[in-house]
Fold this protein.
Amino acid sequence: MKILAIESSCDDTAAAVIDAEQVLANVVSSQPVHEIWGGVVPELASREHMKTIQPVVGLALKKAGLDLREIEGIAATRGPGLAGSLLVGFHFAKALALALDKPFLGINHMEGHVYAPFISGQLPPLPMLVLIVSGGHTQLIRVAQEGRYELLGQTLDDAAGEAFDKVAKLLGLGYPGGPAISREAASGDPAAFAFPRGLKGREGLDFSYSGLKTAVLHTLRALSEEQRRTRRADLCASFEEAVVDPLVGQSLRAIDLHGIRSLVLAGGVAANQRLRQRLLQANQGAGWQLVLPELAHCTDNAVMIARAAHGRLLRGERSGWDLEATPRFSLMELSESNP
Ligand code: KG4
Ligand code: ZN
């Protein structure tokens, strides 16, 4: 099935075309306009989406070598995300589908991240555990049956990606912070600074990152201007380790507690090399399967939306023309509407 998918939940305008297992086009246009503000400005994001949505979709079709009439299904991110940003991509997709009389499906953005590594939507052995780590989410989700999501644990304050972005700002490393911190961290010592590990020693499968951000702030205040520069790599490596440690620790705990057979890493922070490395180490000789998404499919893109839509469209699922985009849309709601 040839699917055109659109993703516009935050600050990337993305369109992709897949034909069953094949990716025919993957176009992502990011928005440098936010850089000077040190974070995404929602109003600017939606205006940029309005400017780029048409050329981005046009380019995706051109790269795929297809005419709109040859597309057999259209999918778009419905939420969660920024209200104004979601509206642009979602309504563009819905209008196209309506005008062309094609099947249309609104997709949960986080389900997109879950399906990013799965060509043709084939899942690994169930029950699987999904560790979702992005700018807005840090969650451990158990999937015992396709399409049903059970929340095992989540962050009580900041998301892991948010912690990367905030600490990068403190260090003057710009936005987005994750890639910049990882680059610096590569030449630093992860044990140089003793930063706190969230909810260490507590029961349960939740996370907490606000104390870590404050600890970095206090450490920076105690350093001279020069030390901040010379010890930047050590600061980044120690901070990164303090983010990664609980992610790996809680995932292993969840695997033990909930009879998990596979672990899937999802979301923008899945691009983090240290996290990938630590999970690969933990997986050595273990009885569960580890699935890491390709780097190109970790951060927001429309291939993941197309993959999440693929199985649903094939099963005949359709969204009504009255469906609206929704900024707050948890994966667990999907399970409720899909018994
Ligand atoms: O999934 P995503 O593209 O957007 C959201 O839905 O949030 O994730 C973006 C987040 C940002 O916080 C960014 O700093 C983080 O992913 N990120 C990384 C890396 N690449 C992106 N964090 C750590 N290491 C990376 N290499
Ligand atoms: Zn995302």
Summary: Residues 132 and 319 are 25 Å apart (CA to CA). The radius of gyration is 20 Å. The domain at 2-115+300-337 is CATH 3.30.420.40 (Nucleotidyltransferase; domain 5). The mean pLDDT is 95.
